[in-house]
Amino acid sequence: MSSVQPIVARATPLGEGAIAIVRLSGSGVFEITDQLFFPDRGGLFSTVPERTMSIGRLVDGDRSLDHPLAVRFQAPRSYTGEDMVELHLHGNPLIVDSTLQLFLRKGCRLAEPGEFSRRAFLNGKMDLAQAEGLADLIRAESDIALDLAQQQLGGELSRRFSHFRHEIVDFLALIELELDFVQEGYELLDYEKLSSTLQSLLSDIRDLLVSYRTGDLLRRGPRILLLGRPNAGKSSLFNAILGYSRSLVSSQPGTTRDYVEERIFYRGVVLHFLDSAGIRETDDDLEAQGVSFATNLIPLADHVLYLIDSSLPESTLATEDNHFISLSQKYSQSHFLKVYSKQDIGVSIDTAHSVSVFDRLSVEHLLDSLIAQYSTHKTDSLILLTQRQHQKLLAIESFLSSISNVTDTPTELLATDLRAILQPLSELTGAVTNEDILDAVFSGFCIGK
Amino acid sequence: MVRRQYDIIVIGGGHAGIEAASASARMGCLTALITLELETIGRLSCNPAIGGMAKGQLVCEIDAMGGEMAKIADISGIQFKTLGTKKGPAMWSPRSQNDKDLYPFYAQQRLREIQGLDLIEASVEDILIDKGVIKGVRLEKGDFLSCRAVILCAGTFLCGRMYTGEDQTVGGRIEERSAEYLSGSLRNVGFETARLKTGTPPRIHRDSINYSSCEKDFGDENPQPFSRSSKEVQNQIICYTTWTNTQTHQILEQGFDRSPMFTGRISGSGPRYCPSIEDKVFRFADKSGHMLFLEPEGLNTDSVYVNGFSTSLPEDIQAMGLKSIPGLEECKIIRKGYAVEYDYFPPHQLLPSLESRRVGGLFMAGQINGTSGYEEAAAQGLMAGINAVMSFRGENPIILDRSQAYIGVLLDDLSVLSTTEPYRMFTSRAEYRLLLRRDNADIRLTELGGNLGLVEPRQVGRVREKMKLVREGELLLRKLNAQYIGGDGTVWADKAWTLLKRSGVQLTSLVFSDGENLPDSILNDHEVLEQLEIASLYEGYIDRQVREVNQFKEQEEKLIPSEIDYRKIQSLSSEGREKLTKFRPRSLGQASRISGVSRSDLSILMLYIK
């Protein structure tokens, strides 16, 4: 079989179910999975018998993502007729997303609409009638996608990118003019303007990416991690929030050794709370595992509430402050919030985030401040991007951030960079051909001898 | 000598015809080149120059494949300049001023030396086609010559009409005839034709120019030839530059009401990148001056080409306009400028091999395909010559792709996208231009030229040896530590390979540590050193382009069967269906380059072409 690019996609519908299936198909999917999935019974995934389920750990670097079931289908005995892998994950959208991202990073590409079926057809797994149905489906899906893009914010998204597309085409025209008509000595490129345009494109894209994360967050509900030294009152707060006793509560430090997740519905927003083990140097092996787990959880959380026991001596409070700062700097992706607990017995600290589990109002204040950014008013301005659009934006972001300094980049390389940006950009706005760029050159400048 | 039977007949002796005839005969086919006048073979109809941006790369590619143009340009060249040297190496483009008498002289001399090639002076009145297959050609006087393939390289001579002001004459080049019947004969068998126009500036007498009012334009201090097989070249002339002014523009405007362009007597589209002076004045009214280049047309001629002043305005206006320009106050016109309008065959009617889709064995190359420029014509001529031979032998055509050569970009653009204005090559047309450089044309193409029998084995061996040295050199440079001392005395120490990435650092300016050095075989080979410097400078970008090329090839390899009926594929968008039906792409990759064919059309198409 000739080499086919590996693709990945979620096979079960979006949303939260008990399990979610992620499918991979194409050349090298076994080798890729071998790097990420480790069967519990040992050995490589690629050597387990085909069409049997094996359980194991799905790992991203030193972080364990999930404990899924995996099945191997050897070509041609698979749906697509290519080598395929199915991963049966726990249905948490976060896990599914992280898994998709992980495989994308390992060289898979997100499948196009209908691509698994198309491959099935190409490999003789489907007859023409089925295929024609599929063609209509692809048409319909892309029409819907187009409508969606045009409807997003009343076409704001495509307008915004069309604008950037035009600007980049105009810059490219100036660059190509300079390159292709070098004898005529045109050097009209305004590097400062180019630099600021690229900056503003980058910041727009970052806004959109944030908006994507927020929109995505809203669908699945933000994850809030409770973090802090042992006995900082994490489990008490956790229980107060849940309104019933879910975690083991005791005054002995280090009782919560694993982590506990619960979901509440608060003023129309779903909030996932994670209660972690306390952060502390410890000899207790089991607890040490829990502690390292707690810091492992930080990248998964959208918010981290760092609890500080306000009844501790002032010097300890200062140390805690420093610890909070260093943690929040280390994990800058999550929002860190400092929360002073035990206000009933500790020094009164007058911030919005001082709580006592015996003071219901103080807990509600905390929750209100957490959901403030997800209030209905703000959701109107959220742009709900599809995962495909999200991928393109990430690609543009990565190209943009690789252009360090436009004035120091040789002109022909700058042109290569701008074309690289145009590629994903044009997939959001419509194609840009060589002819479009030449048109911009010829319509604007008097050239040629 | 005229025989009755040939393997391949080339019609036309311009730059396409020369390459086509040479390649065909040197690959072993009995070939005839038929042209209206033998002594016009290789004439430089327009500017006396070869190469320039992107075109220079084409010339080097033609050379690497074993074509003629680079060698003729080198021996007839009188000033040499590499353009784009302020940019990176992908932009370096050689250009020469050529002697307009020597160029055809050497072209004809080279052709006459080729075994199995007859040069015939005649007008071809008809191409005989039987059931979609070439049978031969009929000459003006009724003679019939049989052949298995025809390469049509008729340039601007098909129903050529020349215009100056209100005068109109029949012909494809001044004082030469036009081929009046050929395009009609092909239209009769179903070929589509359209009109294009191009123009040429007046030539003036060299002794009538006041050079002290102009600026000198010298050749390079260290002039470089186009061809790897040319030893050395010399600058023998100086060019000059001057500027038009608002007074010139006012004078020219007085002739607009008698201009064939503005009065609508010429309907064909002209090139936007090579506008006539009246077009420049009209479209860019706010520009107060346009630069002109005064280029001597040779060593033993009085004629100077006024580059930038292409015009079809009435002769009196041309003369008055020129006299308002610094340095040209007293100038004498030797030959007036004129526009020429001619038939061309929109090139989507061709396969990428330049063989007609309609008639087996009929190849077309050069300006009749809607291109402009000697270099574009020569590149097509070479490929048409090669592929006519392949077709004669019943073998698969040689198709260069967009990642291999500018020649590939050219033929792909023509056959896939067609053209409605005279097509000129630009570096910006090449997606992979960092890979398609003048310096590596031999590495890209010489092996192929050798396999075809167009490049001598010795030259192929030389390129192989060079590639081996480049590989060895790269390994060494990645390993060895070195120092570089900057202009301000700063010392940079790193791996040699890394130091080379700094702009302006040359390999020979590195000081290697621990007494190490590159072997002499590398140090003494400036072509190898150049490859190493460029590879290091462009690293990262080149990797990225190579990755893109791989993806590109995946699409190019997905072939669309030629019998596919797009009307039956209901799910295609209507625009997509219409464009696919018109352009009939051969692969999914080609389909993706046609505007109007959407991504979902491609997905749908993929279903039908397994």
Distance between the termini of chain A: 53 Å
Averaging pLDDT over every residue of chain B, what do you get?
91
The low-confidence runs of chain B, each spanning 5 or more residues with pLDDT under 50, are none
Shape of chain B: globular
Gross geometry of chain A: globular
Q: Class of the largest domain in chain A, according to the CATH hierarchy? A: Alpha Beta
Order of helices and strands of chain A: EEHEEEEEHEHHHHEHEEHEHEHHHHH
How helix-rich are the residues of chain A, as a percent range? 40-55%
Number of strands of chain A: 13
What's the β-strand tally of chain B? 24
SS field, number of helical segments of chain B:
19
How does the helix and strand content of chain A classify structurally? alpha/beta
The tally of domains of chain A stands at: 3
Layout of strands and helices, then pairs:
The complex is a heterodimer of chains A (449) and B (610).
Chain A: E1 7-10, E2 19-25, H1 29-36, E3 37-39, E4 53-60, E5 63-66, E6 69-73, E7 84-90, H2 93-105, E8 109-110, H3 115-122, H4 128-151, H5 156-180, H6 191-220, E9 223-228, H7 234-242, E10 260-266, E11 269-275, H8 285-297, E12 303-309, H9 314-330, E13 335-341, H10 360-371, H11 376-379, H12 387-402, H13 411-429, H14 434-444
Parallel strand pairs in A: 1-8, 9-11, 9-12, 12-13
Antiparallel strand pairs in A: 1-2, 2-7, 3-4, 4-5, 4-6, 6-7, 10-11
Helix pairs in contact in A: 5-13, 5-14, 6-12, 12-13
Chain B: E1 8-11, H1 15-26, E2 31-35, E3 49-51, H2 55-64, H3 69-76, E4 77-83, E5 93-98, H4 102-112, E6 117-121, E7 124-130, E8 133-139, E9 144-146, E10 149-152, E11 161-164, E12 167-170, H5 182-188, E13 194-200, E14 203-205, E15 215-217, E16 239-243, H6 246-253, H7 277-283, E17 291-296, E18 303-307, H8 315-323, E19 333-335, E20 338-344, E21 362-364, H9 374-393, H10 406-417, H11 441-451, H12 457-479, E22 481-485, E23 491-495, H13 496-500, E24 511-512, H14 520-523, H15 526-537, H16 541-556, H17 574-583, H18 588-592, H19 599-608
Parallel strand pairs in B: 1-2, 1-10, 2-6, 10-21
Antiparallel strand pairs in B: 3-5, 4-5, 7-8, 8-9, 11-12, 11-20, 13-20, 14-18, 14-19, 15-16, 16-17, 17-18, 22-23, 22-24
